[in-house]
Amino acid sequence: MNSVLQVGQASADSCSRHFGALGEADGETGLTIKVNNSSHLLLAYGAVATEAVAAKVDPVLDQLKELGGVILARRPGLADISFGARSARDVSHIAEMLAVKLSSEAVELDGRRAHLAVACSDSSDGEAVRDGASPASSYWFDMALATKAFDALRDGRLTMIWQSIASADAPQRILYHEALARLIDEHGNMLPIGPVVEALERLRLVRAFDHEVVASVLDELEAGQGEVLGVNISGSSARIDSWWTSLFERLKRRDVARRLVIEIRETAALAPEAPAFVAA
After folding, report:
1. Residue 84 per-residue DSSP state
2. CA distance linking residue 241 with residue 232, whole number of Å
3. Which residues contact 219 (CB under 8 A, 6 or more apart)?
4. pLDDT the model gives residue 199
5. How many whole angstroms separate alpha carbon 178 and alpha carbon 170?
């Protein structure tokens, strides 16, 4: 089931205020990088997962040092960084870039590929394991779908089918066109989007996918001449935090924001701030 919410006007300031409330102390802006699925990667793939996480995250920490960051604490799957007097908005942009990059790029694990469920804030998206089969085989199954999805995004194999949404009272009146995301695999076959999104939600990787889909819809709105477009996101993606910094800023254009309809899928737990997310 979906909840449909109209975006009237969005403000990047709301994201910055939220991030600042989480990360500012004693005049300094801080950032916490968490790999929320590190324990499940360890269970599913063994000790090689810990090495792979470190090999992926350590170069990013080196880049943050070049940007003025100071590593305050470093533990497996977690790092605390201070950016001194740098603005919360600047750090929020950095956090968004890191979260998208680290979540969408695969790591190699003895012949298998997996993705890190990364959060860059003080909040955790939690973890989940598929019910039914053994945790390892279930995790491999879901991660294989996730890898195909992110490969398709990386290679530009995301396409949109636009579905007309009509008024219930006047079926002949089109309210907006909803973007139905479709992913094409390397052989030209369409991936089953339902199971893919469900796997991404279980793995806590859906935010990286939703980020790319919403960005594509905003591209269409910015290039369009007045049409109203809708987009689906997971309930767990509807959070006011650094994941959406650049997209919120794009929505500062009132002519774009007023033509966007957010549909929230209720297949995952709805974030408490979901109404505020849409109204932000």
Report:
1. T
2. 18
3. none
4. 95
5. 18
Q: Which residue has the tokens 């297949």?
A: 267
pLDDT in tens, 176-220: 999 999 999 999 999 989 999 999 999 999 999 999 999 999 999
Alpha carbon 19 to chain centroid distance? 16
Q: What is the per-residue pLDDT across 208-258, written as a single tens digit (0 to 9) for each?
A: 999 999 999 999 999 987 899 999 999 889 888 889 999 999 998 878 999
Assign residue 24 a region (left: φ > 0; alpha: ψ between -120 and 50; beta: otherwise): beta
Residue found by looking up tokens 């594509």 in the block: 216
How many angstroms separate the CA atoms of 12 and 31, rounded?
Answer: 18
Question: How far apart (Å, rounded) are the C-alpha atoms in residues 21 and 34?
Answer: 18
- Cβ burial, residue 40 (10 Å; 0-12/13-18/19+): buried
- Distance CA(269)–CA(263), nearest Å, equals 14
Using the predicted structure, report yes or no on whether residue 21 has a pLDDT greater than 80: no
Residues 138 and 77: beta-carbon distance below 8 Å: no
Q: What is the pTM of this model?
A: 0.83
Residue pair 245/121 in contact (Cβ under 8 Å)? The answer is no
- pLDDT of 129: 43
Classify 98 as helix, strand or coil.
helix
**154, two tokens:** 């990386």
- Please give the sequence-ordered ranges of beta strands (E in DSSP) within 184-228, or none if there are none: none
Strands in the chain per DSSP E = 2-7, 24-25, 28-35, 70-75, 78-82, 107-109, 112-114, 118-120, 158-166, 174-183, 229-234, 260-265
